[in-house]
Design brief:
3 helices; 19% strand; single chain
Length: 120
């Protein structure tokens, strides 16, 4: 097994372990974060209904002008997803870090979402 393949397998295993406890409901949806090397994506998901309420990512046209794989871009995505969630009537979420460590871009996104008004 190649090193990159092993990293993906281990991340997926951590994410499955995390998802046993973290479940989004209509009252408190799940803020799911996925980060690739180039981009970061955040979605607010109602698992009971099986639908995404709001989403934001660095692949959006407004964010592509700046570099997309850094902490500043992740913080901007966190701010945007929090604003959209608040507009959709969501104030509290549970945080799903997607098997990644709470560090760097994931932590920056979470902190920006908190500062923009989301509670978790």
């Amino acid at each position: 097994m190649a090193d990159t393949e092993r990293v993906h397998v281990l991340r997926r295993r951590r994410h499955e372990r995390l998802r046993r406890k973290v479940v989004g409901t209509a009252e408190r949806p799940r803020l799911a974060v996925f980060g690739s090397n180039r981009h970061i994506v955040a979605q607010v998901i109602d698992d009971a209904a099986g639908r995404t309420i709001v989403a934001a990512s660095t692949m959006e046209a407004s964010l592509r002008a700046q570099p997309t794989g850094n902490v500043a871009a992740a913080a901007e995505v966190g701010r945007i997803v929090a604003e959209r969630a608040r507009a959709a009537g969501v104030g509290k979420v549970v945080f799903d870090r997607g098997g990644s460590r709470y560090h760097g871009r994931v932590a920056a996104l979470a902190e920006a979402a908190r500062q923009a008004g989301l509670e978790f």
